[in-house]
Amino acid sequence: MYDFAYQKPGSLADAVKLLAADAEAKVLAGGQTFIPVLKQRLNKPSAVVDLAGLGLSGITVTANALTIGATTTHATVARSAEVKKAIPGLALLASWIGDNQVRHRGTIGGSLANNDPSACYPAAALALGATIKTNKRAIKADDFFQGMFTTALEPDEIITAVEFPLPVAKSAYEKFRQPASRYALVGVFVAKGPEGVRVAVTGAGQGGVFRVPEMEAALAKNWSPEAVAGIKISPEGLNGDIHGSAAYRAHLISVMARRAVAAAG
C-alpha cells in the first residue's frame, strides 16, 4: 500500500466535510473491494474516511418500503426475517455474495457505490426500482448506475440507505457463479412490484448492470418461464473473457432469466 491518512469521523456530517476538503480522499465501508485495490496499489488515496460507527446500518419495513442502511452487511440482509418476508429474492441474493467472510464485512452501500460490473446488488436495485439515498438527495436506480464502476455519486456524496418499494408480488435472483470469486458471470434478477415488471442483468454487460425490456414486456403479459424462453439476447456489447464469450453470456442471460422466473413462482 501507499501511505495515506486514516480518518474515523464521529458523524456523517464530519465524514462529508473530510471528503469535501480533500478531492483525493476515499470512503471505506466494508472494504471488500477497496482494501485489495489498496494492496495492489491500484488506488492512491491521500486519506481513507472510515464510515464504521456512524449509525448507517439497520433494516426497517413500512407498508410502502423496505429500507436498508448503507453499512448493513450482506450477512445481515441474508438472514433478516423482514427481508425474507418482504423481498425473498433480495435475501437470497445477499446469501450468495462471495464467501462467509465477505458477507460479514461487505456492505450494501459499498457494493452499490463501487458498481462492479459483476456485483449482485446493482441487479436487485435496478430490478426492484430502488432509490439510493445519500447525504444530499435521493437517486432512482435507473439514474444511479452510469457505467462500469461509475455512478451518479458526487465526490463528497455518501450513500446513507437504500429504499426498496413495497409490496413486491414476485422476486427472484439466479446467477451463474465464477467458481473462484463467486462473482456473477451472469446474474438475472426478476421482479414484479410497484415499479412494474423489471428484469436486470449483471455480469454480462460491458457497461455494467442493465435491464432487458423485451423480457419485461413478455413477463408483463405472461409471467412464466416460457414467456422468456424464446427471447434471444444479442451478444453485441456483452463481455467476453477467459471465463466465457459474449455469445455464451447471451445464452446464460436467457437461462438465468427462465430459472429466476420459475423460482419466483
From TrEMBL:
Pfam families assigned to the protein according to its UniProt record, in alphabetical order: FAD_binding_5
Q: Which GO terms describe its molecular function?
A: FAD binding; oxidoreductase activity
Keywords attached to this Swiss-Prot or TrEMBL record, sorted alphabetically, are:
FAD, Flavoprotein, Oxidoreductase
Q: What is this protein called?
A: Xanthine dehydrogenase family protein subunit M
Which organism's genome codes for this protein? Acidicaldus sp
Q: Which stretches make up the FAD-binding PCMH-type domain?
A: 1-169
Asked if the record carries the keyword Transport, the reply is no
Q: Which SMART domains match?
A: CO_deh_flav_C
